[in-house]
Amino acid sequence: MKKFCKVLLVLTVLTQTALMAKGIEGYAIISGKVDFENPFGEVKLQQVVDGALETVATSSTNEKGEFAFMYPVDEAAFYHLEIAPRRYSHMLRFYLESGVELKVTIQEDGYVLAGEDLGHNELVTDWNKSVEKMLDINRVGSVKTYKEFFPLVKNEMIDEAQDFKNRINTGDEQFDALMKLSVQTDLEEQSFSFFRFPRTMHASPEEYPDFYQQWEKDVKFTDADLLKLWNGKSYMDNYFMTYYLFLENPKPVSSKPLSGMIPSFDDPALLDVFLRDYFSTRRFKGGQFEREIAIARPYMTSEESKALIVELEKKYFTEAGQPGFKFEYEDVEGNMVSFDSFKGKVVYLDIWATWCGPCIKQIPSLKKLEEELHGEDIVFLSVSIDALKDKQKWKNFVKEKDLKGVQLMADKAWESGLVKNYEIKGIPRFMIFDKQGNIVTTDAMRPSQEGLKEQLVELLKK
């Protein structure tokens, strides 16, 4: 059979039966019925991406509550169904691979699975039902407390999880390994996430079960397949929250910075995703972001993480009163000069290029201003964004024009961190920073404009 082009198809109820009867290579089909009133009238199909769920399709239900999806599956993986709004007592997780055809009847208290080719989903369903016992307590509005949850995990779920892992022997090595990892992750993640939900009563440290101590490891996160699980990301985050804030002799986050978390990872992909989530979901005050991003930057190597850093630096290094963007560029002698080296002095920054006519027109006024404020605690800093191939042209220009102050050349022209951080679209661009290196303005007056000297003099008095 000719393979269909890779597009998502949300099946109508009229066409689903015919398509399912044929069986379509490279696709999985899920159809079914919501067997109770669903005021939102839709079902979402969600895929696991970097350890969390992302909606990839939505199917409206007909008057009978029926829905259907046909989805291209290049690689077997876990997918989930979600009824809007989310019903936390349901665990609608399925393992989709080419040729799988599932019929799912979703009821108030669970679901019934049928179909012509279930793949491994009978086994998945068995474990889903076990997880629902924990999800029933770990949901918004639950009135159950540690008096129900701790015994459930200690006396039932730990043994149930081990027995279930012993049952996993389908002959499909990829599935078996992922399913075993999922079972242990579900068990621990739900135990950690228990602390995130509001409760009417709370256990004292001496009442915490021993299994929490047994799950703490010096090196905890070693398997990148965690990113193929719906709760892989929350598992990592909730682990640190639990051991930092709730257990006996907790390790407060304030006393154990990010550098204390990083050794828990033995897989770079996991660490990259964890750090991306860490910086995306937290608010930083003062110089906290600056300190922690310096620790994390060497480990945030994916394109997604690099893009996030750029956006965060725009947020934390653009507004008045915030620290200026940290850069280090080469001077005309080939020495590396950092922005931080000017602490204790006011900085008047000029972003320019040798090919920029308006930039060159400002040079006489800039030289005059430098002469008038000579000897004061101010640095006139010029950063060229000429292309690297024009480095010698820039050096010659600096010498021929006898440019004063500190002359640097950015490392990647318009793609340099300085340009991206301040979203510079045109030059010349002038900025002012106070003696602490904090932003006064990122759109300062030009040297030729009246009032600039007075502004700088007032700043020097502070």
Automatic annotation (TrEMBL):
InterPro entries: Redoxin, Thioredoxin-like_sf, Thioredoxin_domain, Thioredoxin_ResA/DsbE_sf. Residues 318-462 form the Thioredoxin domain. It is found in: Cell envelope. It comes from Echinicola arenosa. Keywords: Cytochrome c-type biogenesis, Disulfide bond, Redox-active center, Signal. Its main location: other. Residues 1-21 form the signal peptide. This is TlpA family protein disulfide reductase. PROSITE patterns: THIOREDOXIN_2. Pfam families: Redoxin.
